Amino acid sequence: MQIIYDILKELGIPYIEHHHPAVFTCEEADEYYKNIPGGHSKNLFLRNRKGHRHYLVVVQAHKTVDLKALAHTLNESKLGFASPERMKKYLGVTPGSVTPLGLINDVNHEVIVLIDQDLWNFDRLHYHPLVNTSTLELSRDDFKKFLDSRGNEVRFMKL
After folding, report:
1. d(Cα 130, Cα 92) in Å, to the nearest integer?
2. SS3 state of residue 2
3. Based on C-alpha coordinates, what's the Rg of the chain?
4. What's the whole-model pTM score?
5. CA 44, CA 112: separation in Å to the nearest integer?
6. Rounded Cα distance, 81 and 58, in Å
7. Tens digits of per-residue pLDDT, 145-157?
8. Is 69 buried (19+), middle (13-18) or exposed (0-12) by CB count in 10 A?
9. pLDDT tens, 94-107?
10. What CATH number should be reported for the domain holding residue 76?
11. How is residue 84 annotated by DSSP?
């Protein structure tokens, strides 16, 4: 986990850390985030039918994502949730801790990141630092700087 803090420091990205008990759902997180302004997300780690493409969907916390429609948009026959083993392999996280900050573990830049355009309208964004017992608050510009440093394909979409 320390590696994410080291990378943010290396990139000159300031953050505010919010500690809280482990949260596994957006509803649980609401209890701790209700007084923290900014864009809160739900992060879905998906794979295509053949399992050779992986997508990290970063969407506003209480939005519903239509996986069939998204698959159609991406020209995939089907999308499904990736297994915990795939989460660990590509993002270095376990269920409940999926975060775009996990891209530090995708050394081959295989994960395609899909960011909800509505979430991107917030000036402040919040993500787990590889564990679900705290949340890092970053400016949108600094989060973009982090994404640019990773080398993954990033698409902004209306989800």
Report:
1. 7
2. helix
3. 15
4. 0.93
5. 12
6. 14
7. 999 999 999 999 9
8. exposed
9. 988 999 999 999 99
10. 3.90.960.10
11. H
53, 112 contact by CB (below 8 A): yes
**CB-based burial, 135-156: b 16+ in 10 Å, e otherwise:** bbbbbbebbeebbeebebebee
Dig out the tokens for 103 from the structure.
């891209």
Query: Which tokens belong to 89?
Result: 């392999």
72 SS3 class: helix
Q: What percent of the chain has pLDDT over 90?
A: 80
Taking the CB of residue 23, how many other CB atoms lie within 10 A of it?
20
Phi, psi of 60 (to 5 degrees): -55, 145
Q: Residue 89: helix, strand or coil by DSSP?
A: helix
Its domain, for residue 148, covers: 2-157
Number of domain units in the chain: 1
E strand spans, 8-145:
16-19, 39-48, 54-60, 79-81, 111-116, 124-127, 134-139
The backbone torsions φ and ψ at residue 54, rounded to the nearest 5 degrees and listed phi first, read: -125, 140
